[in-house]
Structure prediction request, 1141 residues.
Amino acid sequence: MNLAATGMAAVVAIGLVTALLAAVVPARSAVVGVGTAVTGAAAVVAGAAALAGGSFSVVLPEVLPLSGVALTLDPLGGLFVAVTGGVAVAAGIYAMSYVDSLDLRTRGVQVALPLFVVAMALVPAAANVSTLLVCWELMALASLVLVVAEHRRGPRVASAGRWYAVMTHLGFVSVLIGLMVFVAHAPDDSFAALREAGGRLSPAVAGVVFVATLAGFTSKAGIVPLHAWLPRAHPEAPSHVSALMSAAMVNLGVYGVVRVGVDLLGGGTAWWWLLVLALGAVSAVYGILQAAMSSDLKRLLGQSTTENMGLVLVGIGAAGLFASSGEHTLAALALTAALLHVVGHAAFKTLLFLAAGSVLHATGSRDLDALGGLRPVMPVTTAAFGLGALAASALPPGTAFVSEWLLLQALIHGLPAGGVAAAIAMPVAVAAVALTAGLAVATFVKAFGVGFLAKPRSGAAADAHESPFTMLAGMGVAAVVCVVLALWPAGVLPAVQAAAGGAAVSGDVTLRLSQATGALSPLLLTLGLLAAVVVVAGVVRAAVARRARREARLWDCGGGPMSARMEYTATSFAEPLQRVFDDVVQPELDVDVSHHQESRYLVQAVEYRRKVPDRIERRLYEPVLNAITAWGGAGRRLASGSVHRYLGYGFYVVCGALILLAVTR
Amino acid sequence: MSALGVVGGVVQPVLIVAGSPLLVGLMRQVRARLEGRAGAGVAQPWRDLRKLLRKERITPRGTSEVFRFAPLVLVATTLVVAVVVPFVATESAVDPVADLFAVVALLALGAVALALAGLDTGTAFGGMGASREMTILALVEPTLLVAIFALSVRVGSTNLGAIVSSTLHDPARVISPVSLLAAVALIVVIVAETGRIPVDNPSTHLELTMVHEAMVLEYAGPDLALVELASAMRLSVFLGLLANLFAPWGIATEATPLAVLIGVLALVVKVGVLGGLLAAGEVFVAKLRLFRVPELLAGSSLLALLAVAASFFLA
Amino acid sequence: MLSLWRKIRRTGRVAEPPPPLPEGERPERAALLGGSVQIRHVDAGSCNGCEIEIGSAFGPVHDGERYGARLVASPRHADALLVTGVVTRNMAEPLRRTFDAVPAPKLVVAVGDCARNCGVFAGAYGVAGAVRDVVPVDVEIHGCPPRPEAIVEGLRKLTGR
Prediction:
């Protein structure tokens, strides 16, 4: 048994033992926290071992009926197992005290957490369709239990749970249909057999398989238009679960697309990948646009997950497109960029969600319009969120900057390579990525600047306090990973390239593209920036007259002191963007003016409400839901309660069947 | 790291720091003359900076480190750009940082630092400036990157040294439709990023029309000096980039004193002429309403997309 | 646009040749500013006559900017306050706060007879006093309203140019 196999065995064993202990031990939260963290650590070890080349494969025919459980860990799966494990470590440490503070100690919720991690670690290790589907479903159910953990808090949690349950199962059905069609053309349901059959499928069948699985997997990744559950479920879940879902679970949707599209189906044709590219670009822009309008901190982070998964899909789509035109180095570059973004996103989204959880824990609010002024009272959380925001906004020295740079390099070098389709797709993709990057900057400046700086906008924010040590430690783990990824991406690049199946970037301090000119050194850039700050500070210190710094009141135009009500809020910060993208987001504005009783010329109160609804949801989901409701209403009329009618229905159906038989025979 | 790169890395920041206040002075002078005024002289911005450095430092109550460090970060990002971008010499001191995307992102980082400082004050104007600045930044980004895309396609690289050298060796490219379209798009971007008319009015006193000024209303003394110096430096860095991407002639290709001197003079002349043209252009247009700016930027990003299409279909 | 260009060509330079540097002592702290004076204008209760004259002092003909003076938007950016009008009761405290917001070294210029000694409003019920009763004044400029030349002369005492 090699290290990867031992690691996976440890993941399953420790996870199950933790779940068992959670069911019986009274001091559950500490046990579950530690157990989840250790499970995660084991997954990191297993994934790293697989990335280093130590793959394994095991078949346990007795565990499941039909084809049994088959597990294997290749570099691609290993990367996702390792990412999941890393997120679980941070979330596990964080959960130890976070759970104590909220009413999350019920047995079912505590049992579900380690099970969720185990299921997520097993999905990328599945080596046949039935194992994949069982683990997928286990993951969905465990996360569903966790999403509705705080159902006592209000109807929104229950509604989020319903949305999530329905959407995740529709996705599951879609994946199931796709894979069943696939398996029907292969000798058995092992991935090895599918891989062999994948090349021989007729284009029509392969297309059906790809589109069906793509729909299912992208719904898990929160890609437009199947994203509706994500901004509901992620914010309503407890924050460490949000981190697990947003940083680890959504990745598995990406994993599914790569596994089925690139690996099992063997690449397919250009239009598949143009579709993926288009979905990715639309999701990226739409997700960040919604996030830019959002004033709910956790919802904003959830919508940013849609954005980041969109960027990842842009990379994957570009990789598939290049591969289908024979540009394998470029394809490897694009896939490397996409997978590096998966890793980076996992790190900074964990950090951001855990920091948002810390704010929620301290203030009881995640409404940006009621936050602010947290820096003096929560310095560590503020620093953590600031670091995460920098990492998320694709600015140097941030984590996402490196992967977006690689992605842009792939897109730019792809223009001459991919023919006319690429000539149209690449510039549009670059524009989409650029718009996404710009809006992400605005979004995270809003989240950090409004949420943490300036004056507190509510009593709860003013009375906030720093979180307990284990929560800070959980954030610390994620923060360290973010910094390492930002400064020394070469540390994980070999692993990512092993997963991408091709080396397109080399170098240690400086990343260099192979077969294309282009180099970037995040470390030198950061050092240069630090050196420049030191030089400027030194020069200013030397040049400035020796006068003491004076503290003065804010410039309030000489009027009375400024109150927190005069500050810009998240809503007002986003107002110009909302006006610019008026046609896309179609906000709903409500102005109620109530007049004085004596005269209509005297205004008593003006009430202004703004809501930015999800337009895709409104246009796509509401008609479907209304139709289903209408059918249900129509169906109810059939069930009148009269036994005679029911007997009549039976009679008609039998007659109809007989006639049909007679006609077709 | 070549000798030429080191020379460039030392000469360029000194030149940019020393020269950019003079550029601002020159632009104010051009504007003054066109308005029939005499003007305060080209060296006036330096007098302003010298005086600001001698003044008292003020920390407004309730602000955090973000407010205090933002001017430093703003200057530092621009300084790094001044070191690495091939302004005077074709080779860069730190080549792996002289990437167009990295440079653009560094300049954006400076803007973000200032926007956070504006929000950190907790004043209505600070927040308003930050909100507008970020809106414009978000809308400028697509044009900027697509224009970069158009310029880098023909070279096959986004490395600035490579783009400049390639234009130097093949001057015919400059008058190609790709270059012209990308140049127009970039000019609009530069006007927006440096806060000039018609996007923002750097000399406005009316808070409600401010973008950049609104964020810095709380800065005083040396902090204000840094902010003013940084915005002057950003202006010259952007104009220098524009000049060298489309007309790199005169830039030093070898590390001899004469070549470097010619490089310095060529940069001064090019940036000076561009600055003068920009200032003269400002006299003829009025500031746009904030919500008309997106139309301008959308137009320029269309031009950038056309440039990319041209680079593929006319190649 | 072309017609604007023609107009610019036809008009040429309208700024008058600079008069000789004004006599009389300069405030001591003005020397520290080294030829650059940023000015924040405060209307403490003026009839707006002085404002019109200030406007033309910075217009093309007198061009106050050529001597290194510039109007700015925030007292934090300013070196000098240009106060016009009598200080009304409502503006006394804001004027003090504005003075407090200016980083040292700072100067105050009282523009017009109202600012100097309350002018025709002396003794009125809403008047808190002249500018020097509220904040220390360094330079006073006569006139009701003062001529733009006088304002420019007063500013040149600060800039020294």
Chain C touches chain A at residues 74-76, 91, 93-95, 97-98, 100-101, 103-104 (CB under 8 Å).
